[in-house]
Amino acid sequence: MRFLGVSRQVLTDLKSNGVVQTVEYGKWDFAVTVQSYLAHLREKAAGRDERTLNEDQRRAKLELTQAQARRAALIADRDAGHLLDSGQVEREWANTLRDVRAALLAVPSRVGAALPHLTAHDVETLSSEIRAALEALADGGTDGN
Fold first, then answer.
1. Is the pTM of this model over 0.70?
2. Other CB atoms closer than 10 Å to residue 63's CB: what's the count?
3. Domain-located, residue 30
4. Which phi and psi (to 5°) does residue 4 adopt?
5. Where in the sequence is the domain holding 17, given as residue range(s)?
6. Residue 60 domain-assigned?
7. CA distance 120 to 123
8. DSSP secondary structure of 26-77
9. Alpha-carbon dihedral 42, 46, 47, 50, rounded to 10 degrees
10. How far apart (Å, rounded) are the C-alpha atoms in residues 130 and 45?
11. CA angle 134-136-139, nearest 5°?
12. What is the pLDDT of residues 13-65, one digit of tens each?
């Protein structure tokens, strides 16, 4: 008590809060008590002592801890190969859709070659319809109907 510069009541309060411990009723281990009390003061000064935080500080600390946990989980999932890079996914889809567009635009000439009885007008109509459908899809529609 005197060696810490606190009253017996403060020391009792520190004990009830788990900051310091007695060896037996009314007896304190000097070195352990001083070390525990100094560690408590350091934590309190650093703002890490949960017992000194108000409700807003506790909530903010909890939210920060939860955000850090979510970030760590995402990093672990990414490193384990469970997540895909959005840029890479976008590039792959762009390549796939470019291939689909090219294949659809090639349909009229292939059909014209496979069905020689079709007129040039028939093949051009097929080509126009495919282009209209692709343009409607590019504009966010379905097929223009």
1. no
2. 10
3. yes
4. -95, -15
5. 8-51
6. no
7. 5
8. TEE-HHHHHHHHHHHHHHHHHT--GGG--HHHHHHHHHHHHHHHHHHHHHHH
9. -40
10. 72
11. 110
12. 777 777 777 777 777 677 777 777 787 777 777 766 666 667 887 788 889 99
